[in-house]
């Protein structure tokens, strides 16, 4: 009898002993060593509430399905699939389903950049134009109306070119060039199209994947460089295409595609075998699909299809992954940069990544207007909790997290030695509601 068969029989035996809801997946799907919830201070009974709420929403047609993975003290205690991977074709969800993780890509790209920083090949104080010269020519839009509560630009001053009669955004020179640090903490002045209604927002892509579908990385940088910045670099947190630009910086330094570089420094060492910027034909059947229409609005639901190659691998939101893979990434962060004997970055680098980088002089009002971000600052690609309170969900000072616009999320609570991943493919309010619901359902299960 070979080793795999012995392990399979052992896992089957263990499954009979473990209290529900621990699910023991196939040996090749197990991201971490398995333990009962009670052995690490969690309640099996309370964890069942996660499944109760998900099944309700699946039965009511609010979501197609989801995968949840939770680990504490380095042990996998909850790993379950619910509902459908592809509801239209009646394909059930499995724990090895591949999801488009959207902005959860950012945390992985930040680690990739910090590997270069540790090697002395990328200095965070360097201007972006050192690596991408066209970015040094960007001007800043002149706002004609600012919301005093949020600090958001609500109207932009426009001008008419006397030579052409064309109406354009009025701009002023940038007082400082954006730096690599600005990209990583979203103080570059870049934005996303979905973040507002001004004339500047209308010039920007809704999401990085929109650009990656139609332009090469070089074309993207040329196009972006001709746009006005929304704010002066280094003065305000503004969520935008900064990590898309950071990914191109990494490619310029590493002299290879972003996915190839991350495969070498992150995915392969952590055995994240299903994480990439393109889902190959042999795995395409495991790619999660959304409901055909948004149950809240009735509008068609469209998410990026990563079974088709993009023109460039955008670092802000174009990766696909599984719950198993991303849990290993999150556990590596919790472990201080290492997992299973593979060190990705140093402990101090992880501490640097997961510290609040929005200091004095940076306008952070836009964070506080987002309910899920109240009480959080921002590190290098992730939100970082400032205190136990002043938030809409339970947690600990110093915990960190981020989301994806298609319904994915992860969080790490170092104080509780807890990591959790929630993967869903949906849009709008249906997926957004889990940003608070999932956190609460996990944290209420802690009983030690």
The chain-level mean pLDDT equals: 92
Please tell me how large the radius of gyration is: 22 Å
> Which sequence of strands runs across the widest sheet?
3-2-1-18-17-16-15-14
Large-scale geometry: globular
Broad structural category: alpha+beta
Note the main sheet.
8 strands, antiparallel
Q: How many β-strands, per DSSP? A: 18
CATH topology of the largest domain: Beta-lactamase
Q: Could you list the spans in which at least 5 consecutive residues all have pLDDT below 50?
A: 1-21, 23-28
Assigned CATH superfamily of the largest domain? DD-peptidase/beta-lactamase superfamily
Distance between the termini: 40 Å
Count every helix, treating DSSP H or I runs of 4 or more residues as helices.
13
Q: How much of the polypeptide forms β-strand, as a percent range?
A: 15-25%
CATH structural architecture of the largest domain: 3-Layer(aba) Sandwich
CATH class of the largest domain: Alpha Beta
Helix content: 25-40%
